[in-house]
Amino acid sequence: MLKTALLLSLLLSPAVAYSENESSEAPSAERQEALIHLLKQDCGSCHGMTLKGGLGPALLPQALADKPDYVLVGTILYGRETLAMPAWDGILTKSEVEWLVAQLKEGINE
């Protein structure tokens, strides 16, 4: 029992430290432009250039509406090995990913 508790605390402490140090401010206008470009070019290579789906699922508001933000943020930050979804942690900050998720749910192409 003690081993399990210790292991869980070691596994969870980086995530807690990461979230505590993360700013929730919106990216600057210049960074927002770069994020949109990244979304359309890099994400679009798997999710379709119009984000209607391809190798990866559609990233349109109706496709994302029932998915909690924290699930989408986690998928973008940490990826999904079994689905060929790369991790963007270390390239994008949590606040940038949260901003991107909000844009996708609002309809970035609409």
UniProtKB/TrEMBL annotation:
Chain ranges of the Cytochrome c domain: 27-108
Highest classification ranks of the organism: Bacteria, Pseudomonadati, Pseudomonadota, Gammaproteobacteria, Oceanospirillales
Signal sequence, start to end: 1-19
One Pfam entry name: Cytochrome_CBB3
Keyword Iron attached: yes
Chaperone recorded as keyword: no
One function term, GO molecular function aspect: metal ion binding
Species the sequence originates in: Oleispira antarctica
UniProt name for this protein: Cytochrome c domain-containing protein
